[in-house]
Design brief:
Blueprint: E1 2-5, H1 7-12, H2 14-26, H3 39-54, E2 58-65, E3 68-76, E4 86-94, H4 103-117, E5 122-128, H5 132-139, E6 143-153, E7 159-168
Helix pairs in contact: 2-3
Amino acid sequence: MVTRLSEFQVHDLAEELAELLTDTVESGASIGFLAPMDAAAALAWWRERAAAVAAGQLGVWAAHERDRLVGTVSLAFPDKPNSRHRAEVVKLMVHRDARGRGLGRTLLSAAEEAAAAAGITLLHLDTETDSPAERLYRSAGWTRVGVIPDYAASPAGVLCGTTIYYKRLCAG
């Protein structure tokens, strides 16, 4: 089941969210952190997100299976007047034990549907070039813009490219 989290839920679930972040980084996903992922740093990062949720700058959706948090995705909402029609999909994470069962697609769809319901007409994201996530975005109807070489370091510290995608939505 996928649910949108309030600022209080992000704070209350911060330890589970931090465990998911740590697992995601340790399993090689390039989401902005280096391995080994420090548990305290992961916890602090998630606790900081609660303020962004409270301010309406971030929406966070979480997936649970049998009372265990196994995935999350977020939408970052710009605060500038000329960009309120768009949002960025950030930090799509699925626990390595829950991968391969369509959970990433379910989380992505939840974010897309919520964005459209909020009047967002354009989503964008970036992901590590040639990563498994690229297959997900292409198969979910996202359009590839291009690649920026050596954009970020992988969790192992190796520079890799990032691929930019966008998707137009029909506002709900």
